[in-house]
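Hi V.,

You were right to ask for the full record rather than a summary. Here it is.
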Amino acid sequence: MFNGLSWPDASGTMFFVPPLSGPICWATLGAGVRVTRDLRGHSGRAAAEVAGVSVATVSRCENGRALSFDGLARLAAYVGQHPHAYTAPALLGRPGSTGNTHCNSLISQEAGHAD
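Predicted structure:
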C-alpha cells in the first residue's frame, strides 16, 4: 500500500512517486472508477467494499465531486493508480490559467488570446 514515498506497480515492484501537487481532476478519477467497476463487474456496493469506502463515496466520485484524501487514495488504489495521477500540475503557473480542468478554453480567453 502507499507509504508516501513509493507505490507498487502491477508486478508489485515499488517505485518513487513525487508528492501530490496541483488541482485534482475529480472527473477523471470518477471516470476511472466507473470504468474499473464496469470491467470488474462490480456494483457500486461491491466497489465500495473492495475499496474500503462507503457507497456514497463511490457515487460522489463517479459524479466528479470532491472527496477526502482518504477517499481519493482508496479509490485511486482501486483503479490501480497513485493519487498523483489525478492531479493537474501542468495548469499551475500558466499565465491566464483559471485552474478549471473542465473548460480549458477559458485559459486562452483570460490570457487575451484570440484563438
